[in-house]
Structure prediction request, 300 residues.
Amino acid sequence: MYKFEPLIKQMIWGSESWMISGVENNETLVANGSEKGKSLNALVGELKEKLVGQENYERFGNEFPLLIKFIDAKRDLSIQVHPNDEIAHKHGKSRGKTEMWYALPSAADAKLYCGLKQQITPEEYKAMVENDTITEALAQYDVKEDDSFFIPAGRIHAIGGGCVVAEIQQTSDVTYRIYDYKRKDKDGNYRELHTEKAAESIDYTVLPDYRTAYTPAKNEGVMIADCPYFTTAVYDLTEPMVLDYSELDSFVILIAVKGEGTIKANGEEMAFGKGDTILLPATTTEVVITGTVKFLETFV
Prediction:
């Protein structure tokens, strides 16, 4: 089991804690055990399929495929979109970005944008950015604890001030900024917008609801996301549970979002409570979790 030293990033709108990252020049370092101080991608290069799984190693090589963050937004983030892999490659990036949010306790008035609520064309989109009305085309949600939003590449989105979320995403830091409320940075300059690249990347499909519908349950895994880039379930435990990974050809990341307990795997035992993010290698066959703890489980 591996824990990592988080990377804390102060942003114009709040802060991000990168808990597990293989992003170039932003790699997290192992915080425990004999591998302490080693970067995540170096660990992948050393252990290969024993860490990430055979198919994942063939697919991603020595770059770890997921980035795990906690985001604490004090102010609204910019309206943005991420490209898919094809468009990202076109612009010289290694991959696009599909992601998901899981809401933690947030401010009572916290809101976010996710998806289009009305049909617009690329030309109308550009005009709405220019005349400061683009938010009128977006679906807005009040945010409450345990809400989940899946954000495939191409879906316009933005976290609002007061939101606190756990984010699971492809290992990619490519973002096309659509609109930033005409805010200026510390030097008095507007932040760069990527209007043309965003217009190319946006999926203009309108859906009736973008919040993930799921029924919470105690002491069992409840699926909240399943896509080619990650599969995520939420567990709300009040009694001990054994997780069987003997047939899974992937690493597993467990992200504690509430409560506390212990986790036993591979002959080790460690505390597992709110904020802890643990990477289990693909060789893990069985995990025992005790305590009263809610956590996300994600793998590729």
